[in-house]
Design goal:
The structure is a homodimer.
Chain A lengths: L5 H7 L11 H14 L8 E2 L1 H8 L3 H14 L2 E4 L3 E4 L4 H25 L2 H19 L3 H18 L3 H15 L12 H16 L3 H22 L9
Antiparallel strand pairs in A: 1-3, 2-3
Helix pairs in contact in A: 2-4, 5-7, 5-8, 5-10, 6-7, 6-9, 9-10
The structure holds a DNA duplex.
Chain lengths: 237, 237
DNA sequence: TGCCTGCATATTGAATGCAATATGCAAATC
DNA sequence: GATTTGCATATTGCATTCAATATGCAGGCA
């Protein structure tokens, strides 16, 4: 490792990575995802292409391409010759999604015990502690944010990209729904207890336990959600 | 239930349901899916928009919209300003997909035991018998076709649309890959034995057993596939 | 001879325009 | 007065056009 050739010095300068060019429709997809997640585009609202075009400052072509992507992700529904509406989540769909989510995350927990580095587990513990702090302060919103990022992180360290992308899609659809956050206050303590157990399971790399805790945790979240909607949780099984 | 008012008679005529209008881009999506599944558009092949437009007889707009959908399904990859290529499946991705598929179908088997009607179970048995006939005759292709439809049918009768759509997507991506059928001849007998056990599990509505058999069956299919590629199956776990 | 630069061509990305379809309202009919 | 029919408007679906970017090759320079 002698001094580098002067001609190669330039390569050593940190340029902050290659500047990435995002095509317009890609940007529009991202923006619409956010708008839907934040509820700016409420469920069931019909979208008139031209209006959105004016508001976003793009022409109809990239917007329409973006709609196709969002439709394939299940965030909007395209009615032939009648435009797009933001999909409305029925309790049935919410139940089905949570049922699948429970199995996927349970699997992720199992894999995380196999593949996560010690550093990553420490990072999860760290997130957990911060979440607990918000819990003690009853800061629902911040708690919710960290809670979500814990679940996302577990799936990430499971080292299965297919699993991650499927989970991400489901997660996105749940996140933006009108049910958002509805499953928290009821039995908040129980949810937190699940997380305590989960972190320990991960730290001891007890895959079986992590699997079972996550599955129970998410299935319970359906119960909490159903209760908050005055629905019999069992009526959808 | 007296004779209906003559004015209402028309509603009683069977019109074969509403005629459905498929937009062009939708048709293109379906066609491209087939072309990719059949290998007409081989993996890794770059697609020049204009060429395909001429061949399909459509303009670039619906084709591009179709690409966005297929990209979001993972069948093609869009390189900014450089066009689309049919995605190539690496052994890593094949492994990851099968791992997820195993869990999803296992869950589906469990649900099928709860929700399938007796008629549907008889239908599955019927498919199974036909598949066995092809097995005895060593008709690989027909065996393969029925085999696939059995798996699809199990997911259908599980009565969870979210599960079904996710499974369908994974299934489509596996189907078209160069690995197609590669996992059959090795240990064909073992695969068939799994199916025998599976059908019995379903008929006795033994959810736990159906779950475990399906999971094992698909995980074993990774082993078969890895062997046929001269890969150590364990090296990807 | 090997590499770099600059231009010509090919191809994609986005905007616009036109045709087809749906929607809403008013007039006509029973 | 209620229902239906026909027309005007609004909106989407698709084709075409224009602009931006990438690709390949020829010529210049060390």
């Amino acid at each position: 490792m002698a001094n580098p050739d002067p001609a190669e010095v330039t390569t050593a300068i940190d340029l902050g990575g290659p500047i990435e060019w995002r095509s317009l429709h890609e940007t529009v997809v991202a923006r619409l995802r956010d708008l839907i997640a934040e509820g700016q585009l409420p469920e069931g609202s019909r979208i008139i292409e031209r209006e959105l075009c004016d508001q976003l400052g793009v022409s109809r072509t990239p917007l329409r391409e973006a709609f196709k992507v969002l439709a394939s992700e299940g965030l909007v529904e395209i009615l032939p010759n009648r435009g797009a509406v933001v999909t409305r989540l029925s309790p049935r769909e919410a139940h089905d999604m949570l049922a699948v989510l429970a199995r996927l995350e349970a699997f992720a927990g199992e894999l995380a015990c196999l593949h996560a580095t010690d550093d990553e587990l420490r990072g999860l513990r760290d997130l957990h502690e911060r979440m607990m702090e918000y819990y003690r302060q009853r800061e629902k919103l911040e708690y919710f944010r960290i809670n979500q990022s814990i679940h996302v992180e577990i799936v990430r360290v499971a080292r299965n990209e297919v699993l991650r992308s499927m989970h991400g899609r489901l997660h996105a659809r749940m996140k933006r729904s009108r049910f958002r956050g509805n499953d928290i206050p009821d039995n908040w303590a129980a949810a937190v207890a699940d997380h305590e157990e989960l972190i320990v399971a991960l730290e001891t790399r007890n895959g079986r336990l992590a699997h079972d805790v996550l599955r129970r945790h998410i299935e319970a979240s359906w119960t909490r959600l159903a209760n908050s909607l005055a629905i019999d949780p069992a009526s959808y099984d």
